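For reproducibility, we list the full input for the magnesium ion complex.
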Amino acid sequence: MSDPLELTEIPERTVTSAALPPDQRTPWHKVVHNDDVRRLFACVIGGFVLALMTGPEGDGINMLSGVDGALRFPHLGICLALTVGLWVLITVRHRFGERARTASARVSALPARLLPNAKFRGLALVALLALAIVYPAHLNGYWQSVLVQQVGIYVLLAIGLNVVVGYAGLLDLGYIAFFAIGAYSDAFWTGALPIHPPANLNPFWVIPIAIATAMLAGVILGVPTLRLRGDYLAIVTLGFGEIIQIVAINLQGVTGGAIGTGTIRHFALHVLGINYVWGLDPLPYYYLLLVFVVLALFAFHSLEHSRIGRAWAAIREDEIAAEASGINVLKYKVMAFAIGASTSGFAGTLVASQIRFFEPGDFTVQLSILILVLVIFGGMGSLPGAVVGAAVLEWLPQYLHVHPLFGFQQQDLYIYFGAILILMMIFRPEGLIPSRRRRIELGLAEHGIGTADAMTAGASPSEPAGLP
Amino acid sequence: MSLLQLVDLEVRYGAIPALRGVNLSVETGEIVTLLGANGAGKTTTLRTISGLQHPASGRVLFEGRAIGDVAPHDVLALGVGHVPEGRRIFPQMSVLENLEMGAYRRRGNLREDVEHVFSLFPVLGQRRRQEGGTLSGGEQQMLAIGRALMSHPRLLLLDEPSMGLAPLVVKAIFEIIARIRSQGTTILLVEQNATQALQLADRGYVLENGEIVMSGAATDLLGDPRIRAAYLGETAAH
Ligand SMILES: Nc1ncnc2c1ncn2[C@@H]1O[C@H](COP(=O)(O)OP(=O)(O)OP(=O)(O)O)[C@@H](O)[C@H]1O
Ligand SMILES: [Mg+2]
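The corresponding predicted structure, in tokenized form, follows.
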């Protein structure tokens, strides 16, 4: 995970018989040596294996009944169709991958071409923000709640995880545990749990407390784990996610167990003469969410381009080199991890208050993976990528679900996400909106050092300009 | 007072000892080389000095100050630069960005430092915008050294800078190490390339299974039959 995706892969070129004149066609016994054919074999065999693995179980009396059932027509056909489909994709990629890549590069260069001016980009952002403020008011209640519960929450979750995975290169598979901690903090402080809080808080002040609790949990989990290099974090966070869920189920006296919490109060603000209660209407929650998303975007954007962001980049690229450069690796890793945790915690609080009830079953590992998929889909380390990736992947299923033509079923979601991920890895591994490389040296260019472009300066071994 | 002194240094990985009572000193202005076969404990010694590893017992004194338990980023701030084994540069950062990361602990204008590095390694100056990962092995080693120099170390730890490089490149890098010393940086050089290291160094130590088995002036070591047998592939004349 420490290595960002390799983008400069050289596509494998295979000479295929179809492209050659008849007399140069590969003889049949050499066809197996053709890469495409070999891969087809592998995929067909993979299809059979998949059919066996996903087929019915055998029984003690007729031991081969499982195999028999697995190799029946519709089941085997589906599995073979899947793997042969994969082969088609791979082959298409080998034939047309280059073209697809240049096309996608051209598309991603488009915004920079159309909006070369920073002022225009700023204006575009303001216009987008205005749209985000005005447009939802014209939607119906269904889409407004989709906007909060699907799009908004997942955008927030994705930009938070992007700090951990994209900026610092830490694989966090228990991200949703902090979401659970935020939600349970909310339930606790609003008196919706079997145990009662020491003081009944104005439900709005639950937000900072829940954020702080999730952050604390992140620090407590992060400090011992992040000392270790490598994939330990992925394993520990995976385990932590499970532990939180199991604890929530079993600690009935505290959490309400598997049945879930009592009714959580809506947020309410009573300060400086303002009395506002977030009610059943999703729109006010949407605006609250929008405020936090915009704040988080500002904060994360400036972090990315700060000294802290540079330290994260260094750690992501090579931890030992970062250490040798005098970066306090543990500190910055814990910082990224805790920022992610508190974002997730806030999202949990907001969801809990809006839905007013939740249960431990809402915090599955699958959800952590889903958010990771959103980040990878959008482009690791890219804020616009995380926003657009999460928004598209969360909005699209809802759209397809209600659209009469498609009749998309929610329970099939992960099948499609899996397929999308495979497609992305083949055709656009850097994500929908790849992160632009930081230009740290711009600071140096201002001092007149980086102005000459070494790549175009030719190979003259002259001393660098400006030497005393 | 020595710039660096290791006193009865013991370092373990779990229960396995890697260094067993190492005594070593480096005076200001010297080049000292630490020789030894694979697995002798050379890298462990450097890692312990720069705080990446902590001693089980014994002391690491830098300018008389015990730094055995100091964290690596603070050791660097005290004036110890470390060029780790296997030239670990930031592969997706440009040459300039790599150098700037080397000065992470400092603020202020880096222009003079960058130009100083480019004067030592002109090839880096020509490739200032190239990504670190696309540099050749020799250029990467130069970049790793340059990056360590950006923090203004008084003591520079070099872990096998000649590893995997062509003889001509090794020669060039060793010449630059001599130049870095002449500009006032003390150097502790870990090497397997014994002849060249001893020709460059003032003094040398030989590490074997975590223990110093020999030490002395570089010229003496260069003429020592045991060294010649062990590292220069000659038969020992007992
Ligand atoms: N992280 C580690 N965990 C356990 N043992 C280690 C670790 N690092 C090094 N060792 C062991 O400590 C001993 C000394 O290793 P070290 O890397 O210091 O040797 P070295 O002299 O630098 O060797 P080389 O010339 O091959 O780089 C070796 O036996 C090695 O196996
Ligand atoms: Mg070593």
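The pocket of adenosine-5'-triphosphate (ligand 1) is lined by residues B 13, 16, 18, 36, 38-44, 85, 192 (CB under 6 Å). The beta strands of chain B are 4-13, 16-26, 31-36, 57-62, 65-66, 80-83, 155-159, 186-191, 203-208, 211-217. Both points were considered when choosing residues for closer inspection.
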